[in-house]
Amino acid sequence: MPSTENLKHRIEAAIPGARAEVSDLTGGGDHFRATVVAPDFAALSRIEQHRRVYAVFGPEIGGPIHALSLETRAE
Amino acid sequence: MSDNPVRDAITEAITEHEIILFMKGTPEQPMCGFSARTTAALEALGTEYAAVDVLPDPRIRAELSAVSNWPTIPQLFVRGELVGGCDIVTEMYESGELADALGVEAPKDAPARAPVAAEPGAPPLTIDNNLTDRS
User: Fold this and answer.
1) How far away is chain A from the Cα of B2, in angstroms, using its nearest Cα?
2) Would the pTM count as exceeding 0.90?
3) What topology does CATH give the domain B5-102?
């Protein structure tokens, strides 16, 4: 089962310079909310920023990660 | 036309409707909290929009996500462009960008915060990843 720490580390490892805060929305270990701040996002639209984070998890979104609500920004 | 009638129907719908929301359930009866919240934001702005329920046929979600490169439902398109899912629509509602993007004026009595549809008994928040072929 994914944990908030696990999601945080994977986002930060995959996106250069990213800082992520992840919370468990329901306490059930499958509905998460992440706030991700990364310098690389400055060049990306909001849609592209979200795609970048979704891409970290690929098929896990909708699988073990039932929900990943996102807030992203460049700085 | 391609040999993929579902994909053709989706791209045609996106082209034909200025504002179109792909969602789970209907605006009257959303079947997921994220879809409910997105329709609530559109309703709060008094927007007219087309809505497509993706639930009756799993091919709709799969083809939609292939077209949009976006893994989850709901998806809002304005003038042929993907605006985003629930998070982005909610954020844009609260910043005032959504009304601009939709080309409407927010009603004076529209709430500043995006309406939260997830009341007790509301449909669960669940998403499916439609970019992944799991067949």
Assistant:
1) 27
2) no
3) Glutaredoxin (3.40.30)
